[in-house]
Design a protein that fits this description.
heterodimer, A: about 210 residues, alpha+beta, Ubiquitin-like (UB roll), Alpha-Beta Plaits, 2 domains, five-stranded mixed beta sheet, two-stranded antiparallel sheet, 5 helices, 9 strands, about 15% strand, B: about 180 residues, Glutaredoxin, 7 helices, 4 strands, about 10% strand, flat
């Protein structure tokens, strides 16, 4: 049995199992920390750079998805430095996201909307120019699932979900601004042998992978 | 770009041969294997990736992910003549983009592609070390400086002439052999 530890998150006393990641402890105690790529029970990627928090005794903000909890830990989910990091990170993500909430299947059930509301951040990037490759084709080959790569935030959750539940036909390809989540040889889901199980749509934090209505 | 039947066959055979030297399925060996394939074939085609993924017992898309991540891997066969347009700082300032554009128009391919007849492949490089000659084009290890769009036409024309001459010589040789 692992030890129970006590810690303070935003002046709230909470207890958790030692070694648990801070992000999940905070969320379980109704303290919201923005996050896109973290999946419980899986090795964290720490790719989205949104779950930053201040931990007393640490020089710089840390990503809470990779920070294990320990006894007498004191955490602040908001600070000037954290807010600045999250604001920049969020703006970068939004500059590469096809923004069309009205017609998006993820509307009202979208992590981006949730983060924007919680941290009072604009959905439309203010300083950065939109860099979305509008020519990326929507994959409509399956009966149930539809994939719109223009809306993808590259969190990588669907890759894990597909490996666990489906055929493991998804992964990242290319790099930098060209990075996409795609199939072997960039073929359609149908040709790649998609099972149409819908696991990817279930974990997608935005409206990139969704179930057809 | 569609691969020919022969290219697919060679790709599979070559990667099989290379994989025979690797008995383990240690993931750390994937990149060396892919590098060997590229050395043999000049590129890493999809059928080769499929063979590699079977050997390492991984989904094929994981290999695709690695190959597309690194710039050192080519996905399509290189052309007989490789055109490299310099996009270093000096060449960029002296209109390298215009030169790349004219190659793309003349060859009717995009940067990073190969023509359908496998004669030319076009790519961009970052500085070849002779900035005073900017904009620079390297064609089969031969450097051409102060290139203009008309020079692009000229280069293409001279390669066409060379090719015609070669073909002519070949035909003569054949005819000669037949006469004997």
């Amino acid at each position: 049995m692992s030890k129970t530890v006590n810690l303070t998150i935003d002046d709230k006393q909470v207890s958790a199992q030692e070694g648990e990641m801070l992000l999940w402890v905070a969320l379980e105690n109704d303290i919201y920390i923005p996050h896109l790529c973290a999946m419980k029970d899986y090795t964290p990627y720490a790719a989205c750079r949104l779950c930053f928090v201040e931990v007393e005794g640490k020089k710089a903000p840390v990503t809470s998805c990779t920070q294990p909890v320990y006894e007498n830990m004191v955490v602040h989910t908001r600070s000037e430095r954290v807010d600045e990091l999250v604001k920049k990170g969020f703006e970068l993500i939004m500059s590469n996201h096809h923004l069309d909430c009205k017609n998006c299947p993820g509307n009202k059930n979208c992590e981006l909307q949730k983060i924007a509301k919680a941290r009072k951040l604009p959905l439309k990037p203010k300083k950065l120019i939109q860099q979305v490759n509008e020519e990326l084709p929507i994959d409509d080959s399956m009966d149930k699932i539809v994939y719109d790569p223009r809306k993808c935030v590259l969190c990588g959750k669907c890759i894990t979900a597909c490996k666990e539940n489906g055929n493991g036909i998804l992964n990242f390809a290319h790099r930098g601004i060209d990075r996409v989540i795609t199939t072997f040889g960039n073929i359609s889901l149908k040709e790649a042998g998609c099972l149409d199980c819908g696991a990817c749509a279930e974990v997608c934090p935005v409206g990139a992978r969704s179930i057809k209505e | 770009m569609e691969l020919t039947e022969e290219e697919i066959k060679t790709a599979k055979e070559t990667s099989q041969n290379i994989l025979e030297n690797y008995t383990c399925t240690d993931r750390g060996k994937i990149i060396p294997v892919l590098q060997n394939i590229q050395n043999e074939l000049g590129y890493v085609p999809l059928p080769a990736m499929q063979t590699v993924s079977d050997h390492f017992e991984l989904p094929a898309v994981d290999i695709y992910s690695i190959v597309t991540f690194y710039n050192q891997f080519r996905l399509i066969p290189p052309g007989k003549n490789q055109v490299k347009v310099c996009m270093g700082t000096a060449c960029h300032m002296r209109g390298g983009q215009i030169i790349l554009d004219s190659w793309e128009r003349r060859l009717d391919i995009k940067c990073g592609e190969t023509t359908e007849d496998r004669e030319f492949s076009l790519e961009r490089v970052a500085c070849v070390g002779c900035c005073t000659l900017a904009p620079v084009v390297v064609m089969n290890e031969e450097i051409h400086g102060k290139v203009t769009p008309t020079r692009v036409d000229g280069l293409l024309y001279s390669y066409q002439l060379d090719k015609e001459q070669e073909e002519g010589e070949e035909q003569e040789q054949k005819a000669g052999e037949e006469n004997e």
